[in-house]
Structure formats: structure tokens, C-alpha cells
Specification:
about 600 residues, homodimer, globular
Chain lengths: ~600, ~600
């Protein structure tokens, strides 16, 4: 089983050099986020990830979470690791200091989250969901609810869950049936929820469920959904835990991967109704849920990046150890990393992982600016960019993550197919990331419907303008010219594709939404490619200046160049599919399958 | 759990209409392979696949093969199913009638094999390996060995295995260490072999292992490897079974998928040496092994197609049942198959599956012509084409198979991630197909090294010439024009890529072999795209003539058209990667990872 090694240098490059903490830490609330703090926290987090949760990844997968007598047990070691996680203050890193958090920007939080997920995705899902619940309560909760729940949740002493899905209501939340009946100041919740990640666990004393349900007088559809806070154990006036609430774990799912994380079927109200509080206004639950959801979507994008990095590391290690045959151009048997095809595969993985890392951290930075910019116009622009990026980070980084984990397994040959090796687990774990918190198709519909069409392309035009100006500023830099050309080509493709979708959306909306996923990929390639071009320019500058880390910057340059030739050209076929492929798509009637 | 439904009409279209049994059944030995026989055998095979082995696919996965007291047990139901398989005469369908086979052409065998693998890949691996062993013994065995083994193996009463891999010798067989010491007329074999599919089982009385090993005086490397026949039970003079041979199952692998098929570690000679016979000449084992290997590679290509079809069928069924949301352009909730994005996904899967089916069956037909053509020149041309196609069918159809099974899972959303649904098994099972019998990288090296470079491009030029002439003959056919244009573009890409690889191979062989996998994909798209263009022309003709199956032929036309817009354009980026990407690939030194 190979150990995870946090890629601290690569992370620091993106955070400190490419994006810059300086862009964030002059804003109110983020003053402490200096380069020095970043270095210290990163190093400590690397250690925690590598030494505490990393070693539990494979054993957690083999053992899995279990349900006995109605109670869930996490795999051996998870509880002790969680206690260290909480004791280290990791849970509240990016949370509001008012409730015990450390208020660090997402630009610092993203690489930390990457490390956790890379080390142990099944473990890290628990704090991921908790943070989403914290965000929702902070956004919509009364002062009573905030003070009742947030200090313990931010501190990690209680965890949070998201209860959306029901058997008939997955992507379509309009179909949900769970009911909430008012009773005094509270509500009684009745219904069944499925796919509840960490819906029960043995890590903490209490679990705070956020539950979507309908009030008796609610209008049908999405406009009649409210959000409720339903704790596993009721909380007394003095803050201590009271009676067990009417929530029961019915069963655990047998999943392809993330075996260490319990995925629960939860029954609310078998004995008369679980007691809950309304969060926010009646029938406005979906809006609040989207607060959680957007935070979670960003995190799942980071997860896709993380699992890709982990799988890649395993493949590199194996390729450096495994001797098979005499590579072309050599004269004696050598590790397979020297075979040109293996180099091609590893180069492809490395270049796409670095592109995803730049994209994900960039989105983190925009989340920070959207929250903290003091200038109204700048804040609105950052919010728009952040809104645009969320579905792209989620969709693009997870699709790349699944693909990378599969290609990494391939590097092992037959050994990759044997579970003991560990490569298969990365693929099994990664495979959920394109599905939960909204499938890639849902992300793409969001991108086209809410981000492109709603403002008739204003958001994307701002982005295209920024990219064009940026590329123009690189003119004459010989070392990066091929990358700039490739990104410029992708930019033209994205502009034409956007114009095409805007044009057809009114007469043939099926065509626009049928091209949504290729469009999401195209935008993902464009933005990440642009960030890689900027990385290359930065690396070329460092090399010109005469750096002590010449190998590192040469590698950055070579990797961006590789992406230009062996990645970005995919945009050509995406463009063709979107712009030329409408008629052939619409001709494929549902009856044809 | 969804049931498999054999796509008989689609199969018949490729075999009878696109490729034509008439091209084969005028040749000696294949006279019986008429359209009527094809229909009858197909229907019967469809029933067997759907009713006998199909229902054991999921249970076999859940239960898995087990090892107890040194003996392997297959999952419940496998033995009874195998007995029906043998009783139905299925095992020897394409085998030599001299030894009890039915001598049917591969053009008929390929769809039958597709059905078996689609219904139950883990089960069908056993006859797949047996057929490879039969081919090797028939090709290289003395009359004594042939008559001792072939009747029982062709009849399915004994099974066969391929024993190549050792821990240090995977893709690099030169490194193998298993030894064979002469003893009278026999040899004593000692060594350990890994990854032996059906290395032990409880289906038959005997198992015939073909084992690669070194003679005491063998030269090092691949020129010192010989092939031995080592039965599990020795065979007496009268043909009855004698003593147990010195072969022992040490352990079974815990694999990502194909749980129903035992993957064994076999120890030969723990008690002094397993008794074996030399097959063919000393030190010529690899050549014979390639006979088995090529047969197996073709079959694994079919397997990739098969698992893709099975996964697709599941996704289609789910998409037609699952109601979520109101699709764009509709006014009431409807099954998700009506969402444009789901239609795009299913169209993509369908079009690529049909392209793979045409490619795989075409390769089957070329195998037949290479064996049966009476004209020397025609036979040589068919052999060359078949040699060219083998790595492409293996590499391309399995890569598509893995991708399709992953995309099909995605259609289910969260349900796809739950093992009970069955979609996850298809992905787990499919994932081995790009690895065993030579990884995609190995296929691509074979394609570039032995098929493109060895004859300086003669083989591929013949193919390009045939495709060009064929496309020219379609000029003026309006309905298929976009497909013809797309294939023509792919042809140009493939020609330029071939010329480029030939040019760089002498000065920069690393570049040529580094581009081998993209080249394999490019060739796969070209050939399968060309066959889809021919399908489209055929469908357009039928429609012009006024067919009773208008819907069927319209679908064929639409599917080819869809592939042109949403599949074949990938060739643009493959071309760019091969032709423009050499320098950036070589710049990615092994130290960079």
C-alpha cells in the first residue's frame, strides 16, 4: 500500500505565486492569511494527512462502515483520528471566528482540503458535510439556532448532514414528500431520506441533520420546500444533550467505493415525528440548501483533484519501481517509467492534475473575494465569477479525477486490478465524485441555464475579456508561445460555442441543453488552460531571473507545454460537437435506444 | 437486476448486410455458414445467454470463486450452466471439425461470443482461454498431443489455461524463470505462475495448462522460452485420467471485478516437478504462445464490446423507467431518457458500441479469410489486414468498453454507485479488459512496431487506399455526406500521423512509441468510422428502396451521423497530439514525475 505524500511545493506555487495570498489578505477578516502562516499550516496539515488519516484509507475501505442494532460503527481508527482532527482545530479552519472558527480564506483552505481527501476521502466526507451544514445555519439561522449549534459544529464536537434525496426525488427535489407538521415552536418531521452520508456515526455525541421537507400548506414543487434542523439528540436549555430524537438508521448502502463512509437510509418520524426547527423562512428551503450545496460542490471538485493526485502518486511510484523490458532508446532493463508510453500517460495525468489544481484554487480565491471585497463592484464581479466557476470546478475536476484514477490503475497493469495494490480503490472512490452533489449533467445544466443564458452571456464575456487581455500581455514571450496559442484557440472555441448556445437557446432549447456537458468541459479546459499559461509565464520569468529551483520551474513550463499539445486540443472536438452537432443530436429520438 | 437482451437485429445487420456471410461461405470449410444457419444459431445462443448464464452474472459476482483445501469452487450455478454449455455444443463452435468442432467462421463466432460475454463475462472467460489453448495445440502439437487433448478440449470436457505471467515477468516475458528439465520423453516443470484465469475450477475433470518455461540449455531472453502442455491430471495410455500432477493452487487474487472467475497463483513442481510435454520445438514457445494470444486478443476486444452493450442496455432501461423532473421542451415530468443530456449520453454510447461491433466483426471476417482464402495473394492480404486489426480491436474496443461502462453507470446517478443496481459490476468487470492479454500500451507498441514500422507502412497504405476508394464511391450520396466528410478527415489525419511516425521512427524512436496509443485510437476511429459510413450508405439504400424496417434503418443512419459529429472529430486532437506533440512529450523526462 503506498503512502500519500502531500505535494506541498506544487500547492504553494499555485497559492502563493500564481494566485497570490496578497490578493486576499488585504481584505477585512483575512489579514492573518500570510505566506508564513500558509507555510506553517500546510506543513502541519501534510503531516496530519500523511500520518494520521492516510494510513486508515485502505483499512477503512476493506473494513467499511457497519450497522448493528441501529447504530453505525466507522472503521477501526476513524474515531481516534477524528479526535485528533478536532483537537488540531482542523474542522473550523475556514469557519467564522465568531463561532470558534479560524476564518482562513478558501485559498488556504482548498489545498488543506485537497490533502485530507487525497489521504482519506471516506474520512473527510464527514467534515465536508459538516461545513456545508455550518454554512447553512450561519446563513439562515436565527441567533438562537446559531448559538445552539454552531460552536459545537465548528469545533467538530457535533457533525452535520444534508438530507435531500428520497427514493423518488434525486436530482428532482420538486418531487420530495417528507412532511413537517408544526407543533408549538417546533415541527414534527416524517419521511424517509436516502444517500445520507455520515447519517449516523460513532465519532461524536450528536449529529445535526438538515432536512428538506414540506409544510402542510406548502405549494407543490420546489417552491414548497422548507429546511429543518433535526438533531440526533435533542438539546436541552442548558446546552446539554437530551432525549434521542425520532430518527433511525434503517440500513447502509453497499457501494462501489468510499466504504469507510456510512451512506445511510434514515427514517424520520417512525414514532410520531422527529422534532426539528425551521431554518430560515417557510418554503425557502431550497435557497438555503443551495448555500450548503455550493460549498459542497466546490469541495467535491477539490475531491476530484485530490483523488487524481493520490492515484497519480501511486502510479509514479509503481512506474519507478517496476522493471519490465528494455525501454526504447535504452540498452538494459529499466523501470517502466522510462517507456515512452508510460511517460506519456504520467505526463498526461500530471498536466491535467496541475490544471485542475489551478482551477480549483482559483475558484477558492473567488469565493474569498466574493465574501470579503469591500468595493461593491469588485465584490459583485467576484461573486459572478465564483457562481460561474462552481459548476465547472465540480464537473470538470471530478470528471478528470475519475479518468485519472482509471489511467493510473492502468499503469500498474495486472497488479492494478488486484485490490491489495490500492489503485483500484482510488477508481472506486473517485467514481462517486461525478455523481453526488449533482451529477456532471446537473452541473452543466446549471452552467448553461443559470450562468450562460440567464444573463445572456454577460458573465462569460467578462471572463473571455479577461483571458484575452491576459493572453495579449504574454505576446512575445517565446518560451510560452505554444501554450498561449493553444489557449487562444480554446478561447475562440469557447466564444463561438457560447454564441451558438445563446443563439439556439430560444428556438431549440433541447439543443442548448444537450450540448451542456461538452460546453462545461470546454470551459474547464479554457480556464484551467489559461491558468496553466499564466503558470508557464511565471515559471519562464523565474528561470530568466535565475532561480535556485530551476528544475521545478522547468517542469512547470514543460507541463504547461505538454497540456497545450496533448490536452487543450480536445477543445477542437468539443467545439465541433457543440456548434456542428445539434441536428444529429436532436435526430436521436428517445425511441431509438 | 436487469436482464440481458441479445441485440440480434443489430448483430445480423453487421454480419449479413454490412460484411456478408457470402464473402466467407464460398470458401472451403465454411460452406455451411449460410444466413439461415446464422439466424438459427443466433437465436439459440441468445436464449442460452439470456436464460442460462445471464442470470448467474450478478450472483457470481457477489459470491465469487473460492479456494478451500487447495480446490477452487466456482459460484453456485456455474457448473450446471457449464454442463449445458458443453451439451449444447457451444464450446467447439469455431473449432476444427477434425477434433469435434463445428468449423464455423469467426464472422459467425464473434456475435455469439459477444452474447456470452455480455451475459456473463466471468463465466465466458473459461471457454475463451480453452479456445486459445486448443488453437496452440492444433497449430504446434504432434499428432499424439493433438489426439490426446483436442477432442476433449474441443468438446469442453477439459478446459485450457495460459500460464505466462510470473511476479517479475508480466509484459516482459523475457524475464521468466520457470524451468523445464527433460526426463525421458517428458519434462519436469518447476516454477510459480500468477494471474492464471481458471487455473483451477470444479467444472470439468481435467484442466490442460499451457506453460511457458525454460529448458536447461536455453539462451537467455525471449529466444529461450519453450511451451509445455501440463495437465492437472496425467492421462493414461487408454485416455483415462491417471495421477494428480504436481500443480497446486496457492491462492486466489482479490480483484476489482470478474469475481466469478478464479484468478490463480499456481505452483508447479513443489514435489519434484510437474510432468509436461513439449509443445512444438524447443525455444520456440513464444511464437506458439502468440497463436493463443492473438486469438485471445481478438476475443478480449469482443469482450470490450460486449460489456459496453450490456452496460448500455442497463442505462437505457433505467433511463426509460426513472422519472425525474420535466425535460426541456416538455411540460410534465417524464422519464430521464427525454432529458437532452441523457439522450446525448445514450447516443454517444450507442454510436460507439455500433462502431466497435462493426470493427470487431470485420476483424473476425478477416481472420476467416486469412485462414480460408484459396488464392495466395488474397490470403496474404487478409492475413496482413488481420494482423493489423488485432491490436486495434483489442485496444480500441476495450478502451471504449471501459469508458461506456463508466458513462452508463453515470446515467443511473446515485443508484449506479450502489452495487445492487448492477451497473457498478459492469465497470469493475470491464476494467480488466484493457489490461489482460496485453495492455493498451502493449497493443499500441505492437501496432506501431510490428504493423506500421516493420513493413514501412505498406499494410496501412493498403487499408488507406481501400478506404479512400470506398469513400469516393459514396460521392453524391447526400444522406451520408457528413459521415463521409468526417471519415475522410479522419483518413487524412491517419495518413499524416502514419507518415510522421515512419519519419521520426529512425531518428527519434521514443517519439514514435510515445505516440503509439493515440495512434491506435486514431486507427480505431478511422476503421470503425469507415464501417459506420458503409452502414449508413447501406441504410440509406434500404430506405430508398422502401423497406418495411424504416425505423431500424433510420436509426442506423442517425447513429452514423451522430458518430461523425460527436465521435470522429476526436481524431483532430489525436492527430495534433501525434504530429505536433513529439517535442513536448520528450521534454517530460522521467525525473519530472
Amino acid at each position: 500500500m503506498d503512502a500519500y505524500r502531500a505535494p506541498l511545493r506544487d500547492m504553494a506555487f499555485v497559492v502563493k505565486e500564481l494566485l497570490g495570498l496578497g490578493r486576499v489578505n488585504h481584505l477585512p477578516g483575512f489579514e492573518e492569511a500570510t505566506d508564513d502562516l500558509f507555510d506553517a499550516v500546510q506543513e502541519e496539515c501534510g503531516r496530519f494527512s500523511q500520518e494520521v488519516i492516510g494510513p486508515l484509507n485502505h483499512t477503512g475501505d476493506q473494513q467499511g462502515a457497519t450497522l448493528q442494532n441501529g447504530a453505525v460503527s466507522t472503521p477501526a481508527g476513524f474515531k481516534a483520528a477524528y479526535q485528533l482532527f478536532v483537537a488540531g482545530g482542523w474542522n473550523g479552519l475556514t469557519c467564522d471566528p465568531e463561532y470558534g472558527g479560524q476564518g482562513l480564506p478558501n485559498l488556504m483552505g482548498a489545498p488543506i482540503e485537497e490533502m485530507w481527501h487525497a489521504a482519506n476521502m471516506a474520512f473527510t466526507l464527514c467534515p465536508l458535510l459538516t461545513r456545508g451544514a455550518i454554512e447553512a445555519i450561519r446563513f439562515a439561522g436565527s441567533e438562537v439556532l446559531r448559538s445552539r449549534y454552531l460552536p459545537n459544529m465548528v469545533g467538530g464536537r457535533w457533525t452535520g448532514t444534508m438530507n435531500l434525496t428520497e427514493p423518488q426525488a434525486g436530482s428532482d427535489l420538486a418531487a420530495l414528500r417528507t412532511r413537517a407538521i408544526p407543533e408549538g415552536e417546533h415541527y414534527r418531521i416524517t419521511g424517509q431520506k436516502i444517500f445520507i452520508t455520515y447519517g449516523d456515526q460513532d465519532l461524536t455525541d450528536n449529529i445535526i441533520h438538515l432536512v428538506l421537507a414540506r409544510l402542510p400548506d406548502a405549494p407543490p414543487g420546489v417552491k414548497g420546500i422548507s429546511l429543518f434542523v433535526v438533531p440526533k439528540f435533542l438539546i436541552k436549555e442548558d446546552g446539554s444533550l437530551g432525549a434521542r430524537n425520532d430518527v433511525r438508521t434503517v440500513s447502509l448502502e453497499h457501494k462501489l467505493g468510499i466504504h469507510g463512509s456510512p451512506t445511510c437510509v434514515l427514517a424520520f418520524g417512525d414514532e410520531g415525528g422527529a422534532v426539528g426547527d425551521l431554518l430560515g423562512e417557510p418554503n425557502r428551503g431550497l435557497e438555503i440548501m443551495f448555500i450548503m450545496m455550493n460549498a459542497a460542490r466546490f469541495s467535491v471538485g477539490v475531491q476530484g483533484l485530490a483523488i487524481a493526485e493520490r492515484a497519480y502518486q501511486g502510479a509514479v511510484r509503481y512506474a519507478n519501481e517496476r522493471v519490465q523490458g528494455i525501454p526504447v532508446g535504452m540498452t538494459t532493463p529499466a523501470p517502466i517509467v522510462h517507456h515512452p508510453d508510460v511517460r506519456r500517460v504520467l505526463s498526461t495525468l500530471k498536466s491535467r492534475i496541475e490544471a485542475c489544481r489551478a482551477l480549483a484554487y482559483y475558484a477558492g480565491q473567488m469565493l474569498d473575494l466574493a465574501r470579503a471585497e469591500t468595493d461593491q463592484t469588485r465584490r459583485a464581479a467576484a461573486q459572478a465569477r465564483s457562481d460561474l466557476l462552481t459548476p465547472i470546478v465540480k464537473g470538470f475536476c471530478t470528471e478528470i479525477g475519475v479518468w485519472v484514477s482509471s489511467e493510473a490503475l492502468q499503469v500498474y497493469g495486472g497488479m492494478g486490478y488486484i485490490e491489495e495494490t490500492g489503485a483500484a480503490q482510488y477508481l472506486r472512490d473517485a467514481r462517486i465524485t461525478t455523481i453526488y452533489e449533482g451529477t456532471t449533467g446537473i452541473q452543466a445544466n446549471d452552467l448553461v441555464g443559470r450562468k450562460l443564458l440567464r444573463d445572456r452571456g454577460a458573465m462569460v464575456r467578462d471572463l473571455f475579456e479577461e483571458i484575452r487581455t491576459s493572453l495579449q500581455s504574454f505576446a512575445g514571450q517565446h518560451a510560452v508561445a505554444p501554450v498561449v496559442v493553444a489557449v487562444g484557440r480554446a478561447l475562440t472555441s469557447a466564444e463561438e460555442a457560447s454564441a451558438h448556445l445563446l443563439a439556439v437557446s430560444q428556438t431549440r432549447p433541447e439543443e442548448a441543453f444537450g450540448a451542456a456537458v461538452p460546453y462545461l468541459h470546454l470551459m474547464g479546459w479554457l480556464i484551467s488552460g489559461w491558468l496553466m499559461a499564466r503558470s508557464a509565464v511565471l515559471a519562464a520569468t523565474r528561470l530568466d531571473e535565475g532561480t535556485a529551483e530551476a528544475d521545478f520551474y522547468h517542469a512547470k513550463l514543460a507541463t504547461a507545454r505538454f497540456l497545450a499539445d496533448h490536452g487543450l486540443r480536445i477543445c477542437d472536438s468539443l467545439h465541433a460537437s457543440i456548434v456542428d452537432g445539434g441536428a444529429s443530436l436532436l435526430a436521436m429520438d428517445a425511441a431509438i435506444f
